[in-house]
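Interim report to the steering committee. The following record documents the input for TF-B3 domain-containing protein (368 residues).
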Amino acid sequence: MKPSSGRTDNQRNNKFETIICPDEDKIEIPRSFIEEWKHELLKKQHARITTADKSSIISLCLTDEEGFIYSARMLAEVFGFQKPTKVILDYNISDDEFQMTVIATIDHSNRPTTFETIINPSERNIHIPIDFYQQWERELNRLSYGQIVCNDTSVPVYFQFKDTDKVMFGNDICYTFGLKKPTKVCLEYTITNNQFSLTFIESFDDQSNASTEVFEEGLNDDESDEGTIILDNVEEDEDSDEPQDDVQNLNNQEAVDADEEPIEWNKIVTTSMAKLSKNQVLHFPNALSRGVLSQATFLDLISEDIDFHYRCPIHTSERSQNMGAIEKFIGDGWYAYMLNQRPRPGDTFLFQLFPDTFELFVTLQRRN
């Protein structure tokens, strides 16, 4: 079949340079490579990354504009990367394989991870210092969104990077964190999910003391939320047509907290779950959210069927916090697993959670 670019395979560039970060979910595929190989890559769901002595199955996620490889965490573990590592991937279309060559390890230790800024209830934007942005430009631009976190509460934010104005904004920041006055804060950046941990410094009664450069050019109607992913919204959509999980050992709260035996439950794949055009989340049964997972921050999602291992941050639904309840879920790690497995409606996920190690084993049982 004729290549999409109109050139033969030998004429097209089959190599690209990228970075594998142990604490990230995605590995970026350059747009120039996607344009060269889009016709072939869009047909594929899986491939393999190999070196002389190791290999790992990966999932490909592509659109017309961008492409990613899942999961960086799993690859870092397989190939022993402790720090962000620059690599060259050489694509062999006949074998669905990327041959990997390691170039160098990247040390982030000299880059600042915090900055001070003002959150003002009367202003839309939170300004990011230009020098901070320049040092983290690549990482910040991986996603169009992030989150501000304080204690156990998180709020989604969205980025707008134009010229010399670098800002983030979100609808519920001041309401969620109870800010009624302009407040100086410190934000500490974590690459994973573009997360900013919030620390309050001081608030101002006088608006003039808290003045910041106002970014007056707002979003156009067609720019507002396009391309963003809000995990809580996905969670609510997913819940709407799902049957109750078939849960064992959860009616007895003592069994949940005993930390002795694995906790088991099943989940039947619905039509909405099988559509992978947007991020999916795994919402835990209420007894688990209130019990063994109530204070947990991470768990290891493991599938021995496909050699899948992913360290997943545990999120608390903002919706549940507003209602005074506790609902826990995992996001990107679950989506990476779904992309690997491509479940169909009627299939069943079988879960085993080991409370003492926070290891969640999952098996996909295909419908006959």
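Residues 1-5, 208-244, 251-259 have pLDDT under 50 and may be disordered. The committee is asked to note this result when reviewing the revised timeline.
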